[in-house]
Specification:
Length: about 475
């Protein structure tokens, strides 16, 4: 029962508590070096790829107005959506395979959120100092020194974010045209919008949200447990070796003190970019960056203890069992991955440069032109090459079958879909009534030394209708 004083001054109940800011400490070690190398490679590919050309075209360019997708010298058209879907499926199964085999390698070393956050943290350390200095600065009052350092950090963040947004748009608009138009203030409205949008997204995610993206926004952390098992390689704390924890002098005997190898230095917590304690067990917030391994190994070296109190291991190994690398789910993922890669290779190298679809004109199955029976068709010709194709038509399958129109060659632009009406004719007494199987052939017509040559590009199957009483 509340007192009169409590009723007069009710307590405020907060349902949401703001998460404290995480100040990850810088680490030095073999896994830190791997992360730096991965960041340099991935950022180099991202910022350099739009500027690299192959055959006069960017090696990666999604030209939406022209409906062309250029990837590493391969050109895809909207008609090749199946192959683009295969590439996405290959990427997804690859993620499943490597997760089941070695945990969250993607999160720790290759995820854009991780890579860009590392860059923003580096700029923060350069401008504001090490972890303890940053914490004291944020807690202290505003001074000229604090304003200068904060302004420099923001300037670098904004500049880097804007260039990131422009580079991203450069994958959709040729960057060698985009950048000059930017300096000439001639960018289109959509180019300006998306450059600012992705620049702002980079600034917000890598500069401020950071671990919150991994904890609350990324779906991968939620379904990763479905790909883990007892033999998946994860970062773990060796409880049997580390407990009970306790501080001690460097030359102290932990067995005599009744302590494990963990000296309660809190280094693993201080370096964690998501602010978790790996000693509490595997958690969805862990991105497997291995910073805790580096700092723990450094402490173990100073104490003269063996490395590996925190290490890459498996749940079965921690329980004294023999880990199994090759297990059913690994074979399943690998089999599906190889099958998809094989299918993509077969489809890509087996696709026709020119494809034709033949549709009958259902409004007029036939018409008589003297002693000739004519059937109208509509041809949908897809040119998958990067050059214009000059083609003509022939028809086979019935004696006397001819192309009435068009008799002249037509031009199909590169990467275009051309719809053309075609009329075929057959003598009325050539064959009996009914539907007869025929082929319409698409021939490439070129000129060499003033002599026309032709090559078969595509074949479309259809039927020719002969009425009962022509």
């Amino acid at each position: 029962m509340s007192t009169p004083a409590q009723a007069e001054h009710p307590q405020e109940l907060k349902l949401y508590v703001k998460a404290p800011k995480v100040y990850p400490r810088e680490t030095v070690g073999r896994f830190s070096r791997l992360r730096v190398i991965a960041a340099w490679v991935l950022l180099g590919l991202f910022y350099a790829a739009p500027w690299i050309q192959l055959g006069g075209t960017q090696i990666v360019l999604f030209d939406l107005p022209a409906r062309e997708f250029h990837i590493l010298g391969m050109t895809f058209w909207p008609q090749d959506f199946f192959m683009l879907a295969l590439l996405m499926a290959i990427a997804a199964i690859s993620l499943f395979f490597f997760t089941a085999l070695a945990g969250r390698l993607w999160c720790g070393y290759a995820c854009p959120q991780t890579v860009w956050t590392e860059v923003f943290l580096w700029m923060e350390r350069v401008t504001e100092g090490a972890r303890n200095k940053r914490m004291r600065m944020d807690q202290g009052s505003w001074t000229a020194e604090k304003i200068r350092r904060k302004f420099t950090k923001q300037f670098l963040w904004i500049l880097f974010s804007l260039w990131t947004g422009i580079t991203f748009v450069g994958f959709f608009t040729p960057i060698r045209e985009l950048v000059p138009s930017m300096f000439a203030l001639e960018m289109s409205g959509w180019e300006v919008f998306w450059s600012l949008f992705y620049g702002f997204a980079t600034y917000g995610n890598a500069g401020y949200m950071r671990e919150q993206v991994c904890k609350y926004m990324c779906p991968y952390a939620r379904f990763q447990s479905a790909m883990f098992d007892r033999d998946s390689l994860v970062i773990s704390y060796d409880v049997a070796r580390g407990e009970p924890r306790g501080k001690r002098k460097k030359d102290a005997d932990p067995e005599a003190l009744g302590l494990g190898d963990c000296i309660e230095c809190m280094g693993c917590v201080q370096v964690c970019p998501t602010g978790i304690d790996i000693r509490d067990g595997l958690q969805i917030e862990c991105i497997a960056c291995a910073a805790c391994i580096d700092v723990c190994d450094e402490v173990m070296d100073k104490m003269g203890y063996p490395r590996g109190l925190i290490r890459y291991t498996t749940e079965s190994a921690l329980q004294g069992e023999q880990p199994r690398i090759l297990r059913p789910r690994i074979f399943i993922y690998l089999t599906v991955l190889l099958a998809l890669m094989t299918l993509f290779t077969v489809v890509f190298f087996g696709r026709d440069s020119v494809q034709v679809d033949v549709l009958r004109d259902r409004t007029a199955l036939y018409r008589m032109a003297g002693d000739q029976i004519e059937n109208p068709y509509s041809l949908k010709i897809t040119n998958r090459t990067e050059s214009s194709q000059r083609v003509r038509f022939t028809a086979t399958g019935l004696d006397g079958l001819t192309v009435v129109s068009p008799q002249a060659a037509i031009e199909v632009p590169a990467g275009a879909v051309s719809n053309r009406p075609v009329t075929l004719a057959l003598p009325a007494d050539a064959i009996g009534p009914g539907l007869h199987q025929i082929e319409i052939q698409i021939l490439s017509e070129t000129t060499a030394d003033d002599a026309p040559t032709a090559g078969l590009l595509a074949v479309g199957e259809t039927r020719f209708y002969v009425p009962p009483n022509p």
